[in-house]
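tool_call predict_complex ligand=copper (II) ion
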Amino acid sequence: MAAETQAPAAGAAGREPNHALRIVVVWLILAVAADLLYWFVLGPNVPPGHLGSAAQGQQFDLNVMSVMCIPVVVGVVWYFGYSLVTWRHREGDDEDGPPIQGNTRIQVAWITVTSVVVLALFGFGTYELIAPAGSGAGEGAAPIWNAPGARLTAAQQTAPWVPGQQALVVQVIGQQWKFTYRYPQLGGFESPNLVLPQGQWIQFNVTSLDVIHSFWAYQLGVKADANPGVDNVAYTKTQHVGSFTVRCAELCGLWHGAMFDSGKVLPLSQFQSWVSATKTQFATVTAILNKCVPYATTYDPTVIRQSCSGPVMKKLGLTSAGGGYYPPQDPSQP
Ligand SMILES: [Cu+2]
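tool_result ok
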């Protein structure tokens, strides 16, 4: 027996170091260091960034959850390493370890700590899903939680926009295979480019002209289903100037993978210049559009087709890309 030269498990407390104290103290130092490193170095760069308030909220949530989880991971790895080194098998020691059964303090502590962590994450996650304004997800036609200055009725959405007091309404229209963006408060023009003013609440009204799509403005933290006949509202507040990617996130046909574009957040004055320029550029088209397909929260493709002359609507891209999804235009129609 090599009991005299080995660290016995029991009965020689004087020679045995206080493992629990060592483990806890080193764990605390490692956990605090790892959390600080994460929070200040990695955290600000975690996707989806902070271009929109929804994105910032998602980044904050990910960071809070990471900061709660990192000490657990560090603890497991550290305890694993400590055990491997300290209690490894030593040459000539053939003895079994002592039979250890139950430890009320450890069991109670474990159940309490894990319950508190899980319930805290549950409470935090539930709150964050709701505030602010639904975390950037589509909330249907009548959101329970509204962004400041958000206005929802179609009549209100066509009144002129007052920056800083009202949310800017942008209607996102999915169609095979692109998104177009209509600005009802700014004269009702429809643009293939999504341009937004900085520091403003944006109300996206997301719909589709044909099949199911999903509007995903990644860096804004907004993702909302675009379904025909459905007005799906999502909010975000633009935080700083920058560009973002818009992708369709719902398999919608052959060219689904090519259904993406990029958008911009501009300072308010530059945004207003863009609006003026685009209004001028699209003046003819906008006049036809407002006459034939006045702004509405949803559009019926069959009505669109019959409401105006086919070639013009086809030119506007409103009968789906290439016009292939709906029955061919009837040449006898006006
Ligand atoms: Cu799509």
